[in-house]
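Our preliminary data section would be incomplete without showing what the modeling component actually yields. Below, a chain of 227 amino acids is followed by its predicted structure, encoded as C-alpha cells that our downstream tools consume directly.
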Amino acid sequence: MASSTYRITDFSLFSGLNPEDAERIQGSSMMRHFPANARIFDEGERALGLYLVMTGSVKIFKVSPRGHEQVLAVLGPGQTFAEAPVFQGGGYPASSQSLEESELIFVEREALLKLLRSDPEMALRMMAGMAFKLRRLVSLVEDLTLRDARGRLCRYLVGLAEEGVDHVQLPVQQTLLSRMLGLTSETLSRTLKNLRDDEIIDSSRGGRIDICDWELLRQEAGEGPQC
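Predicted structure:
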C-alpha cells in the first residue's frame, strides 16, 4: 500500500483551495484503510462525510428487494464519492465496498460545510462534479431500459476508447462488468462471443479487447458513423 501521507489539494475537488483552507480541511480528514471486499457504508446509513480514493478501487451499488445487485460506479485513485449527502444530509443513497485493498480519505461533513459557507466558489465546483455524476447515472438508466445486452456492451466499450488506439482494457473483471451493465454473467459471455463471431471485436488475455471494426462497434452502440 502507498504511504498514508497525502495532500487534500491533490484531488480535483479541493485543488482550488488556498493553503489555509486546505490545511483546515486536511486537519478534519483522516486516512482509512480497507482490506479487499470490505463494506465502507450501507445504503441508508447516516452520512457523516465524503470519501476520496487514494489507492485501490471502490464500487458503488444498490441492492434490490430481491437481492439483485446493480453496480452504479467503480472508482479509482483520484476520484471521490458520497458528495451528495454533504449537501442533503440524511443517509447515503447507495452502498459502497472496496474491490481491493484500498486507502480512502474521509472528509468530515460538518467541517466541509463550514468551509463551503465561506467559499461559494468551492460549492459551485462541487455541484459541477455532482452534475457530471448525475448525467452519468441518467445515461446508465437509459442504457438499462432502452438498450439490449449487445447495445449496452458496445456503448460501454466505446466509452473506454482512446483516440488512435485499436484496443480497450477492461478496468474490472467480467463478473463485475455484468452487474454494471445489468446482465447475467452468461448473457455477457454470450454477447462477447457474438461480437467476436461478427468480427467486431477479438478478445485477448488480461481483460484486453481488440477492436476489429470501430465503425460497426459505434453503430451497435447507437452512436452512428464518425465524421
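The mean pLDDT is 84. The first strand starts at residue 29 and ends at 34. Preliminary results of this kind motivate Aim 1 of the renewal.
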